Predict the 3D structure of the following.
Amino acid sequence: MGYRFMNGTDNLLRFVRKLGMDAKATITSLTRAVAMAAPDYHIARLEIDLSEVPAFLPNAKTRLMTLYEAPNPPEENGEALLQRFHVTREGEILVSIYPGLTPWTETEKDELVIFSHICFFYFGRIRFADVVEKSAFTQYLSGLPNAGGYISRVMPIVAQRRITEYDAYYFNLRSFGLISRRYGAGIGDQVIQKYAEILRVFRAEDEVIGHLGGDNFVALIRKENSPAFLEMLSGISVTVPSKNGPVTVQLSAVAGGWHITDNQVEQSDLISMPGIALNIAKNVTHQSACFVTEEMVRRVSEEKQVMQLFPKALAMEEFMVYYQPKVDSRTNELTGAEGLVRWKHDGETISPGLFIPVLEREGEIEKLDLYVLRRVCEDLVAWQKAGLKPVQISVNISRKDLSDPGLASEIDVILSTYGIDRSLIQIEVTETTDETEHGKMTEFLNRLYEMNISTAIDDFGSGYSSLSTLRNFRIGTLKIDRSFINNEEFSKNDEIILTDIIHMAGQLGIGVITEGVERTDQLEFVNRVGCYVIQGFLYDRPLPRDEFEKRLENRKYEA
Ligand code: C2E
Ligand code: CA
Ligand code: CA
C-alpha cells in the first residue's frame, strides 16, 4: 500500500509550492494528528481549510484543499472522528480519522513517519518565512530593500513629481555564478553582502538601491550621479574572509538604465523598463551598460504580441509559403525554389525577420517549420495532380529545432504521409560554431542522408566553421551567403576564397548556389568564381503560390 503516502506527499508538495514561502500555516498540529492516528487509525483525509486565506489562492474553486486522501476510505458512517486543528489565524487543517480496519503494516508506519517529517520540514520553512515577513520589505541576505521595499520607497518620489530627476537601473553581476561555483555558496553570499555594503555607502540620502535576490539589483539614482554610479558598477574589488585566507574578487556589473523623462510612471515600469535595457546589454550589445529606447520597448511589445497571436495564427492557417525561384544562369532555366514563410495577419504581410527570432527564442519555431514543410508537400502534390512538373523545393529548418532528437524522423514521416518523392525536398540549415549544436547537426544531417533527403548549408561563409562544415557534414548543397556579393566592390580575397571553396565542393560532389543576387555585375562575379545556380531578385522575388505556378509552367527566363 506504499502509494498511499506517496499520494499524500505529492499533493502536499504541490500545495506548498503553490503557496510558496509566503504561506503562514504550520503543520505541527498535523504532525501531531498523524502521530495520534497511528497505529490504530487510518487517516482518511487530510484537508487544509483556506477560507480565510483568499489572498493566497484568489481563484481557488474550493475552500478545502485535500493534501491526502486514502485510496479506499471507509464509508462515512458516523464513526469518523473528525478532528479540527486550528493552525493559525489564516488556516485550519481538517483531519478525518477513522478507526483502523486493518492494523498498520511496518512499511505503512515507516511511510507515516517519513510523511510527517516531510510535512514538518516544509511547513517549517513556511514558519521561517513568517520570521522573514517581519521585515517583508527587506532582502534577507543583503538587508537592502527587496522588490516591495524598493517600489514603496520610489513611489512617493513619483507622487511628488520628482521622478524625472532620476535614472532607474536594473543590474546583474558578471560571472557571479562562477564565483559561487568556485568558492562555494557561502562565499558567494558574503560577496553579495559586501557588495551591498558598498552600494549602501555609495547611495545618497534621496536615492534608492534594492536587491531583488540572487545577483539582481535595482537602483534609482539622481541623474547627476549616474556617471559615478556607472563607473562604480563597471568594476570594484571585494574581499571576504574564508577558511583558506581572504578571497578577493573583482565585481563588475551589466546594467540596464532608464532615463526617466516623464512624470507619468507606472509602478511596474520602474523595474521592467531598465530590465528591457539590461536584456539588450547582456544578449545583444554585450556592453556593460545600455539605456532603454522607445525602439526597444516597441520591440518587446511586438514580441509579446507575436507569442500571443502565434497559436491561433497557426490554427487559422495565417502562415503562407512563398516560393523564390532558383535559376541556372547558364541556361536560364528554373531548377528549384526556396519556400519562405509569410504571415498574413489582418490584411498585412508580416515578414519572417519579425517573428522567427521570437519563435526561436521561445522554443516554438519547430511547429512553424514543420507546418511550412507540410504546406510545401501539399503544394507539390497539387502541382503534380495539375500536371505541372514540380522542381525541388527547399525548406528552412531552424537550428533550434535540432534540440528535438526526433526531428529527422518527423520530417521522414511527413514526406511519407504526403507520398513525396525525396528528390523534391531539400532541407536548409545554417552553419553553427557551437560545439553541442555541431554534434546535433552532424547527427541530423547524417540521418537525413540515410533517408535520402537532400540538405543544404544556408548562409555559408557568414559563420566561422566553413572548412569543417565541408569536412564533417554530409550535405548536398552549399548556399553561399550574400555577404560575399553585397559590397560595392568585389574583394580579391573573397574571389580567391570562393573559387577554392567552390572547386573543393565540386570535388566532394557538393552543389553550390548563391543567394541574394540582384545585379548583373554580381552575377558575373559569382559566375567567375564558378557558381551558376542563382537565387535572387535579379530573377525573382519570393512569389505567392499562384505566381510561382506560372514559373513552373514557363520553366525558362528571358536571357
Ligand atoms: P534565408 O533562409 O537566408 O532566406 C533568404 C532571404 O533572402 C529571404 O528573406 C529572401 O526574400 C531574401 N532574398 C532573396 N533574394 C534576395 C535578393 O536578391 N536581395 C535581397 N536583399 N534579399 C533577397 P525572407 O523571406 O525575409 O526570409 C528571411 C529569413 O527568415 C530567411 O533567411 C530564413 O532564415 C528565415 N525564414 C523564412 N522562412 C522560414 C521558415 O519557414 N522557417 C525558418 N526557420 N526560417 C525561415
Ligand atoms: Ca534559407
Ligand atoms: Ca540564406
Summary: The mean pLDDT is 82. The chain has 17 helices and 20 strands.
